[in-house]
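Box S1 | Example of a co-folding query
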Amino acid sequence: MIYEDFAIFTPGPVKMSEEILAIGAKQTPYFRNDKFSEVTFNCEKGLLKMLNAPKGSKVIFLTASGTAGMESVVMNLLTDEDKALVINGGGFGGRFVDICKTHKIPHTDFKVQHTNLSDIATLAPNESFTSLIVNAHETSVGHLYDLNALGSYAKKNDLFFIVDAISMFVTDPIDMCAQNIDTVIISSQKGLALPPGLTMVVLAPRALEKVQDINSLYFNFKDYLHNGERGQTPYTPAVTIMLQLEARLMQIERDGGVKQSITLAKEIAAYFRENITPLPLKPYTAYMPNAMTTLTPTDGKSAIDIVRDLENDYKVMVCPNGGDQRDMIFRVSHMGAMSKAYTDLLIDALYDYYGMQRA
Ligand SMILES: *Cc1c(COP(=O)(O)O)cnc(C)c1O
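Box S1 (continued) | Returned holo structure for pyridoxal-5'-phosphate
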């Protein structure tokens, strides 16, 4: 297996637990029956609880990567009569802009930098919008937006609020009721620490009302909602990943619930950041999520070289950036089956790499 004996700090796929890996090693069962419907219902119930979703919310399970969740939400819930305010602070925000363009949804590309939008009310373009779209954690740079502020702004302006929570669910707080969120997109391979291939779209009642007839067979939400009533999907789901999801949600509950999962991620992130302060690396943004740390070398070294050397010389995987950022920053994920001892593998590798003694 490639990279099997590597320490994993990439922001998706992330380090998976032994319990979840063991399920992946088993025979995939047949699924058009009550036993599997029960699995689907358990997954739906668990996710809705962890998101504090409003009563009557539903979950759609797509066998696809996260981008399909983003695109299908725009396709099913927005029309050419909408005007979407798309927060664009990096690659994933840019992807929502591209999706709106592709589906001819009127939108404003709201480019942001160096702000978590706590003051969105003053920063937002002074126009009227019908919806607000954000990637709660802009994973391309490791930047977390203020969902409380965005939710208040959405409520005050009666905006339909779509949140891509893919890279912050179970590591950073999100609350659909408190933050007036109408739709949430989640994917298997980030904080949920499952293999890639399963994406969940969570629809609050306000979103359910907005679901329309669309020109797509595979991404037709009405079809998923209809099948979902009996715990099924229109087409073959990622059966094994759903079994892993069911187990993972139970694992989170067993370990103290989603609050505890967030606390743990916060502790691990703080541990990493504190322990590397003597090194010539500085945080890229002031608004870091618990999920990830983005670092800039301060000694003139190229970020991409550090990523390569960690991989080749220490068997440690961190994540490079592309384009003009490839020399400037690299990313370290704290998502998944993390512990301080596991994080030490990276910290110790970095100290050795710089020829420095860890205090
Ligand atoms: C990973 C990620 C996605 C999904 O990307 P896919 O490669 O399509 O799975 C979407 N949004 C954010 C914020 C992400 O971090």
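Residues 12, 65-67, 92, 135, 137, 139, 164, 166-167, 187, 190 surround pyridoxal-5'-phosphate (CB under 6 Å). Residues 7-14+257-353 form a domain with the Aspartate Aminotransferase, domain 1 fold (CATH 3.90.1150.10).
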